[in-house]
Write a structure and sequence with these properties.
CoA-transferase_III; 2 domains; transferase; formyl-coa transferase, domain 3; Rossmann fold; CoA-Trfase_III_dom_1_sf; three-stranded antiparallel beta sheet; seven-stranded mixed beta sheet; CoA-Trfase_fam_III; CoA transferase
Length: 418
């Protein structure tokens, strides 16, 4: 396969892996049967926070994310699976499932995002897992959850975004609804799954029993729609094109140089600063804009005034003017802009890590978030080769080398090394 190249000028924050970095979840061990985005992101959050996440993959095939790219590089695999180890294990074989149960007590968590009923059909559903390891946390991510009339249906993030109300709200009134440009529902579900997993592990380590964490894709993204249910009940739910009503003055505006800025005034004091910046005096003097509700009713008029002023200035001029008046405004960035922004660089939002064979010399990705003063964690290792850590994981569970050799011969497990 052809190797990919990247101009070194694009390396904004070259750093090396930190194999000895310690995070707040050091000592927590996760068997990650997750796949694709939701499962991958749940495991990524736990791994970035210091957990030992062992990704269980099908021999010879691996996670579908491995194939989401060109040449030797799958950007999705490289980013979602950093800080993890890979155990290639055939769960479709009886011996493979027995081996999973055998090593299970070495772990605090088993995470999976198969369609509901899949683990049960293999004989390794939650009842079997908890019988083997009563303190285990079983985190299950699925499209529609483990219960309810839709539970058995296949589900992806796009469907979750559709039924949550998000997609119908997103976009412009005179155009069709707009899907998210990223795996939004999967990301949100992965975060919820990781958060609940940490809570369940704390409960188990405090003497409580193990349990099942049931995370759907559609409920988490429904939850981040905020007060929409109450707004609907009150007859005040915004329609597509109105955006959120959290700020009465907000919008996206094009500047004279063709670049864009965003402006949001969430309080009366900031609204006043906007009016002063535009030379409009006190907002309370204009009956159209005197109250929050008035401004919502006349948002188009306000935005027309702001837009007319912004179009006469370059982005830098407009932002400098608004900042002098204490207005909350900022630029619209492409990721290339963000990677070069001095604040992003100071916060080390993106890092350029050493690539593996067949990859660019360095690969860019987001850094670990959030910042933690006492347990800052770190990116310890790159996304693994399929089965790269199979032997190590099994040895750590007390499996003898002779048996590992036999398992390799019978193709129950697989190992690969760089």
């Amino acid at each position: 396969m052809p190797e990919l190249t990247l101009d070194p000028v694009d390396y904004q924050n070259p750093v090396d892996y930190q194999p000895d970095a310690k995070g707040p979840l050091e000592g927590v061990r996760v068997l990650d049967l997750g796949r694709l985005a939701a499962g991958g992101h749940c495991g990524l959050v736990l791994a970035d926070l210091g957990a030992d996440v062992v990704k269980v993959e099908r021999p010879k095939v691996g996670d579908e994310m491995r194939g989401m790219g060109r040449a030797a590089l799958s950007p999705y695999w490289v980013v979602y699976n950093r800080n993890k180890r890979s155990l290639a294990l055939d769960l479709k074989s009886e011996e493979g499932r027995a081996l999973l149960l055998e090593i299970l007590p070495q772990f605090d968590v088993l995470a999976e995002n198969f369609r509901p009923g899949t683990l049960e059909s293999l004989g390794i559903g939650p009842d079997a897992l908890l019988a083997r390891h009563p303190g285990l946390v079983v985190t299950r991510l699925s499209g529609w959850g483990q219960t309810g009339p839709y539970a058995s249906r296949p589900g992806f993030g796009t469907l979750a975004e559709a039924v949550s109300g998000y997609m119908l709200r997103n976009g412009y009134a005179d155009r069709p609804p707009v899907p998210a440009p990223t795996a939004l529902a999967d990301m949100v579900a992965g975060l919820y799954g990781a958060c609940a997993t940490v809570a369940a592990v704390l409960h188990a380590r405090g003497g409580g029993p193990g349990q099942v964490v049931d995370v759907s894709l559609f409920e988490p993204i429904t939850s981040i729609m905020g007060p929409d249910a109450l707004l609907d009940q009150l007859g005040r739910l915004p329609v597509r094109g109105e955006g959120t009503r959290a700020s009465s003055v907000k919008g996206i505006f094009e500047c004279a140089d063709g670049l864009w800025i965003a402006l949001s005034a969430g309080t009366d004091s900031i609204v006043q600063r906007v009016f002063e910046a535009l030379g409009m005096g006190d907002f309370a003097d204009d009956r159209r804009f005197a109250t929050y509700d008035d401004r919502l009713e006349h948002r188009e008029e306000i935005n027309a005034i702001i837009g007319a002023w912004v179009r006469q200035h370059s982005r830098d001029e407009a932002l400098a003017h608004f900042h002098r008046h204490g207005v909350t405004a900022g630029p619209l960035y492409a990721v290339a802009d963000a990677r070069r922004d001095p604040h992003f660089q100071a916060r080390k939002v993106f890092v350029d890590l050493p690539g593996r064979p067949g990859e660019p010399e360095r690969v860019a990705m987001h850094n670990i978030v959030p910042h933690m003063s006492a347990t800052p964690s770190g990116i310890r290792r790159p996304a693994p080769l399929l089965g790269e850590d199979t032997t190590d994981v099994l040895r750590e569970a007390g499996i003898a080398d002779e048996r590992i050799t036999a398992l390799l011969t019978d193709e129950i497990i697989e190992e690969n090394h760089a």
